[in-house]
Amino acid sequence: MASEQTRRRFLGACLAIAGGGWSSDAARAVTVQRATALAEVDHLIWGVSDLAAGIAKLERLTGVRPSVGGRHPGRGTRNGILSLGSRQYIEVLAPDPQQPEVETARMAVLKGLATPRLLTWCAVAGDADAMARRIRAAGQVVREIRDGSRQRPDGLTLRWRNVYVDGHDDDVVPYAIAWAEGTPHPSGDAPVGGSLRALRLEHPMPNRLNALLAAMGLAPRVEPGPRAQLIATLDTPRGEVLLR
Question: What's this model's pTM, rounded to 2 decimal places?
Fold first, then answer.
């Protein structure tokens, strides 16, 4: 989502075009841009080294306890789910003690976390193959299209397809998800812990990463920052909460 600085630049340009007078069309454009960027967030990935501790921490912050989601076979992880309303949620992602043989770069990051951290985000893909074609048409590289699944505690298996674009470090640039037909969205039956008000993306090389976001057809943009960082602003029963 655009930052306050970007919003001001955009509004200033609109004022200049309008000859110094405020344009209601410009105001509507900002509102649409903001809403579009947020609507493209499927979920946030909040990494923790221990699932029970992570669920308890998020409950303390928001006032709502996430539900246990399930395990990712072959990926070495399991999760908890806190809904952010209609088709959006926070995934509390942790190592799965029942899959000790799985060793991946993501697993190493999770096991090394001293405190929970917002690792990345997942965008709405719509049609995974169509997104992959857009990425390639823009001259960027699709790293992988991968099928995924996990089994909920009630036995229901959720299925999806993920699209990964190459050229970044799995942080402010998301992967994208297309949920399989007939698969219920995880936000639908999880406890609702509030709503997503803003998502700020920062990186020392924003132009390069913004080219990747544009190739994916996504509206959010990366702002300059000293390091890769995501900051999510939530409206929760306990007021404003920042996850980073």
Answer: 0.85
